Amino acid sequence: MAEIRTRVTVPLSFPDGYRTSAEVVTFFGLSDGKEHLALKLGEPGPVPLVRPHSECLTGDVFGSERCDCGAQLREAVERIAIEGGYLLYLRQEGRGIGLYAKLDAYALQDSGLDTYEANVALGRGEDERDYTAVAEMLLALGVDEVDLLSNNPDKLARLGVAVRRQVPTGVHLTAANADYLSAKVTHTAHTLDLLSPTAA
Length: 200
Description:
Elements: E1 3-13, E2 19-28, E3 37-41, E4 49-54, H1 57-61, H2 69-83, E5 85-90, H3 93-96, H4 99-110, H5 115-121, H6 132-140, E6 145-149, H7 153-158, E7 162-167, H8 178-188
Parallel strand pairs: 4-5, 4-6, 6-7
Antiparallel strand pairs: 1-2, 2-3, 3-5
Helix pairs in contact: 4-5
């Protein structure tokens, strides 16, 4: 059973000037042995807003527009800070295949494969992420019911705690990620309205 290891307050700052602070929580006993983090933002209520966010170095750190990860991370931090809840930062880069393999998949996408086909062409699964640690972290935090901030229905199926409602994120559409987002809609039924006039 996972247990809380440490809690430390960390100030957060984003390139657009948004600032807040988070209580960052680490854990003992996560079943996959990885160093996942829970960021407590705002004042969580009985049913907190929660986003499981898989690590994306290119999007989260370098601002790559080949995906929508960085924009979703930025949006999630502010929304959760307002409503109160947790951002669960999961160390599973590239849908679980790792950073180098993700960049190899990018090269295959440049030749015409979509994000899922590229992973398969590398001999990997379409999506090798595992959300077991999400439930373990939440239960260690005393949370057994959440509002889930995600467009991915798979996270609902594999979360392992009660989900009161699914809350969609914004649509962060750019010329560079249009094919990527389209594949997420057609291949894995993400709830993204790519025709929305508010897509940015």
